[in-house]
Amino acid sequence: MLRKFKVYKERKQHRDGPYGHLFEPYEGDEVVSLDCETTSLDVKEAEILSIGAVRIKGRRVKTSERLDIKLKPPKSLTGDSIVIHKIRAMDLSEGVEIEEALEQVLDFVGNRPILGYYVNFDINMLDKFLRPRYGFGLPNKAIELSHVYHDIVKWKSIGGDVDLRFDTIANKLNLPMLERHTALGDAITVALMYVRLKFGEAPKL
């Protein structure tokens, strides 16, 4: 509810500005699968290390239309976080500044719906840097992959919980996990999961 209120307020403020097109209702048939690799899972403390995104059009994951951004290494990049995402400072030696990364994201995503696994975390991470610079966060519709999976398979399950772990969903959908824990790899894997769920055979439990 808080996000909806912020989007409504920011739409009124920016709809006639240079980024007004981002607030217009999307009428196309594309979705953008997006993922961020960060130094922490705490939005307040985390810094963005890399951003990956790929467009989906109908049944097609358009891997030729993708975003693969590495940012300059932040001071908060420590050994503890490297264990999780396997990204070292030397891997980001040619990274861009956050301002350039945000421009690329806004241009690539436009007003298309954003798909992700724990998508609200990725949106909140980007909003953390967007709002101080632009005065608004991402207004896009958010699609949570685990919710799509849950809604499709729940009717086949009599009682019990549905396992919504990333690896489990990929396994149930018989899909490989591409470059796990890289932003682009996770974005493409999520895109493939989404297409399989929307257009393929429902997974077996």
From TrEMBL:
Gene3D superfamilies noted in UniProt: Ribonuclease H-like superfamily/Ribonuclease H
GO process annotations (BP): DNA metabolic process
Domain Exonuclease, residue spans: 30-203
Entry keywords, A to Z: Exonuclease, Hydrolase, Nuclease
Gene Ontology MF, one: nucleic acid binding
Transmembrane portions of the chain: none
Pfam families per UniProt: RNase_T
InterPro entries with a match to the protein in the record: Ribonucl_H, RNaseH-like_sf, RNaseH_sf
A GO term from the CC aspect: cytosol
Protein name, per record: 3'-5' exonuclease
